């Protein structure tokens, strides 16, 4: 009887957390018509978003448009949403590394597409679409890392803020160049940047369109570490090794850790506490917990 109740609670909690994670920021009440927006974006083709899922629970998401420094075309924006949906349904996932092909991260939006959707309404639709996608990316139950090689400019800089951590390679830079384009961040990068570095530093980075090298990024808390390698293969291997210190262990526990942190970051305290209680209930008495009780690791 108790086991049946526990299993029922587990399934109910998992379903509710999944629904919360996929909850869209915008809907029809905001004038947001997703299918129409996707149809518009798909007119601007080029590049791709590639996803590989490794047996150790680490996903590798590659921005692949090297001729344009991995700038986002319209079809890449749609593909990113599709890959986020795939990651939401990946039950064995624990971690995610996002990087760009050709030794650079991402230069933002493809200017050819930007020129074609330069009217205010289309710009707002694109903004809502990308905010929805990157918010869902942030809420994935995977510990995520942006591997910044070369340049992360504009929307590329915003994408780095949607990850839990940022690793940089020698000579790389993050730069919020929006001011020079007569813009402000629109993919949620401004709000996330304030939460990462604080309002004062965010004003400096946005208002000055400052070039942020690895040393300055570390001093601001925008980057966790500078990796030794500059080449794509070496840096990716080092990023895997760095991430593994946080993803080693049972999948259910690693995913639960990320969910607790997401709730603490996004919810008011009382709601975060209730969510933490629900997540705790999904791992208490679970296989990892019972095995740990036999090993008694905290007393060793």
Mean pLDDT: 91
Number of helices: 13
Total strands: 8
Which geometry do the CA atoms define?
A: globular
Q: Tell me the strand order in the biggest sheet.
A: 1-2-3-4-6-8
What does this structure look like?
The protein is an alpha/beta fold. 52% of the residues lie in helices and 12% in strands. The protein has 13 helices and 8 strands. It has helices at residues 2-22, 34-41, 74-88, 111-116, 120-138, 155-161, 189-197, 199-207, 214-220, 232-247, 251-266, 269-283, 287-295; strands spanning 48-53, 58-64, 95-100, 143-148, 151-153, 165-168, 173-175, 225-226. The strands form 2 sheets. Strands 1-2-3-4-6-8 form a 6-stranded mixed beta sheet, with helices on both faces. Strands 5-7 form a two-stranded parallel ribbon. A hairpin with a 4-residue loop joins strand 1 and strand 2. Helix 3 (74-88) runs parallel beside helix 5. The radius of gyration is 20 Å and the shape is globular. 41% of the residues are buried.
